[in-house]
């Protein structure tokens, strides 16, 4: 078949096979990934240019004695601040989000619908509105909370709880109440059923929530910027934004690449752990079925 006939056959029914959809998907991936790869490539540039290739070097990561990420105090402190905020946000948002997800899932009385809507409002609220509201709250209402790390942590927790609620509630709804009811029928108290039955079943969702909150917090700009107090509480996104319009060096590309790798590792770790847990539970379930068949 000639090339022209093949093209006519494809054009007659482009949806017959996922060729057209595959083309759109590949185009999107190229559009989304290539700029990131270009930015990463210039983080290894030997010269100071961020637009002209000048060889390969790790100068902007640690070799340069003054301007590299490792040796520039301002960049290094920004990395530490981002990691600190992300870690504290995980420790605050995930436990609160799990408890909120349990309450919203089990609550069936009057007011449960509005409560679920309010719990998800940060997902649909523009982040700049959330940042402005938190800033005004800490300045005029809760002035005992100082701007800087304390206010930034509270802001990140407030913004991240909704993501935890969505993940954990999805898992709760897929599990159903049967396991808890069976445990309580066998003599377990509600607290024992929660601790020994439900929480282990929720473990993959809880771990995924930890990683998602970490990735969201480490990349946040708006809330971190509104609640920052001075240069010591600037995160990596704030540092990049502040220096992007000046005469930046590829060190900005380097610090952005470092944070990108950290975020990707967090997401990848969450996916791997969830799949390992699911595989282990699948094998355990098959073993129980085989044992039951042998005894029959």
Label the CATH architecture: Orthogonal Bundle
Number of domains: 1
Q: Span between N and C termini?
A: 60 Å
User: CATH homologous superfamily - what is it?
Assistant: MetI-like
* Fraction of helical residues: over 70%
What profile does the largest beta sheet have?
none
Task: Let me know the average pLDDT.
Answer: 81
Top-tier CATH class: Mainly Alpha
* Global morphology: globular
Beta-strand percentage range: under 5%
Number of helices: 13
Coarse structural class: mainly alpha
Written as H for each helix and E for each strand, in order along the chain, the element string is HHHHHHHHHHHHH
Give the low-confidence spans: 287-296
Could you tell me the CATH topology label: MetI-like fold
Query: How many individual β-strands?
Result: 0
> For the CA atoms, what is the radius of gyration?
25 Å
Question: Secondary-structure map with pairings?
Answer:
Elements: H1 3-12, H2 19-43, H3 59-63, H4 73-106, H5 112-119, H6 121-124, H7 127-141, H8 149-175, H9 178-185, H10 190-219, H11 222-226, H12 236-243, H13 251-295
What does this structure look like?
The chain has 296 residues and is mainly alpha-helical. It has one domain (77-289): MetI-like fold (Orthogonal Bundle), CATH 1.10.3720.10. The protein has helices at 3-12, 19-43, 59-63, 73-106, 112-119, 121-124, 127-141, 149-175, 178-185, 190-219, 222-226, 236-243, 251-295. α8 packs across α10.
Question: Which key terms come to mind for this protein?
Answer:
single chain; 296 residues; mainly alpha; MetI-like fold; 13 helices; 76% helix; 0% strand; disordered C terminus
